[in-house]
Amino acid sequence: MVGLGVLGFGLWNHLKGKxxxxxxxxxxxxxxxxxxxxxxxxxxxxxxxVKAPAQQFLSPCSKTPCIYYxxxxxxxxxxxxxxxxxxxxxxxxxxxxxxxxxALVSLDDGTGAFQVDFSKGADFDNLKESFKKELNGGGGSSxxxxxxxxxxxxxxxxREKWTIGFRAVEKTVPASGNxxxxxxxxxxxxxxxxxxxxxASSKGREGLLGSIQKKKKFSFIGGGVxxxxxIPLMIFGPKSEPSDPNTSSYCNSTLTDARARCSDTVSSKDxxxxxxxxxxxxxxxxxxxxxxxxxxxxxxxxVKDGEQVLAEDxxxxxxxxxxxxxxxxxxxxVVVKPGDGFMVKGGFSFDFEIxxxxxxxxxxxxxxxPSAEPMGEAAAAQPEKALLxxxxxxxxxxxxxAPAGKALPMKKAAPKGLKKK
Length: 421
What we know:
Layout: H1 2-22, H2 28-33, E1 43-51, E2 66-83, E3 86-102, E4 104-108, E5 113-117, E6 123-124, E7 128-136, E8 143-146, E9 149-152, E10 162-174, E11 178-186, E12 189-191, E13 199-201, H3 204-236, E14 254-256, E15 259-266, E16 272-278, E17 282-289, E18 299-305, E19 308-314, E20 321-327, E21 330-338, E22 348-357, H4 376-380, E23 398-400
Parallel strand pairs: 5-12, 6-13, 14-16, 20-23
Antiparallel strand pairs: 1-4, 1-11, 2-3, 2-10, 4-5, 7-10, 8-9, 11-12, 11-13, 15-22, 16-21, 17-20, 17-22, 18-19, 18-21
Helix pairs in contact: 1-3
């Protein structure tokens, strides 16, 4: 993957170099006399010394003289996030706005000046930070001041996060030095093309091409070395797991007959659905193991034949859910879901197993089955999912498949555990 990323960077630089070489290049004086391009779309490039605009162009926060600026304004926030590993406070930021501004300037290579319009922006390689400030606290006012710049905060409809501050970062391009520009000639000036961004570099045309060639060379060499280095790993590295979906460590969505214990995650209250095919008649025990977590899973399992529910079980928090069924050859649906309707970010992990039973199946097949992890005290003490006065879970039921066209009467087990608001 690293090798592919390096090769991708090299390809990007290769295309950038091709774009520069494909665009006609004219001196500023030549453009001033004949502002046209041989390119069908009007692409043109030139370079020269930056001539500051007659009226000084200033950045909004620091009032720095420049030809272009960007001010990124961010909202700083915190939020509480609950996963199966517990509850934690997460910090982050959202960009509220990026204020941009550019001037109409002239470039002159000594043969005459030609105008370039940066009002619609460009890809500069010499943007430098000229101002940065953070304002702590949510603040009761929607009016913020960053240096010399005033900003009105928009209405924020975000109930999951609370604002702890705001930040503004200003970057500018100085009104001095030399620039190579690639854009579109329009009238008596160069503007941003309608089909892509304008390119602007302080390295000059030849310097930029040299830099691109160097990056491309090292990218292709580095990518090739990484690819060659990966060959021994592919030959002598650990072998991949068998392709048999009934023996891999991860649960596939399609299962056949008995299934060795596998791992999966349920990330929706509606549950994780499996298509289970049985090729011969028999009894099976289907068990969902809840691992020991700070916020533990209360698993529920349901086995259906079409719309007919063959068996279901709702386990308590941190317990295992098990059903046994006596089925004929056919295709069935198995759903694993949170029995109490509670879900955490990232979902709940669990282990799943389908065991073929010989002879009469016991009333509770996996009552003593080990959990996916030792339960410990962490699974018992759960502030987010406390149990108040729960009774031990009812034993799993053995349910025979109904004759064709008839459903067996069943009493649906009630979910255990305190429901969350």
